[in-house]
Structure prediction request, 52 residues.
Amino acid sequence: MDHMYENTKEYALGEPKVNEKYQIYHFFAEDPEGRTIEFQHFLHEIPELSSS
Prediction:
């Protein structure tokens, strides 16, 4: 996540931070067309999804 932030920080709306409620590490950025996007890293286990 920190690597992604370093590569996009000119578009970031703030530094990455932990959201305790949702157990994610995240930051928001704005794309070239002005849309807000969120980058997330889950801090808890998530179930594996099967494609079958």
Notes: The chain has one domain: 2-42. The helical segments are 2-8.
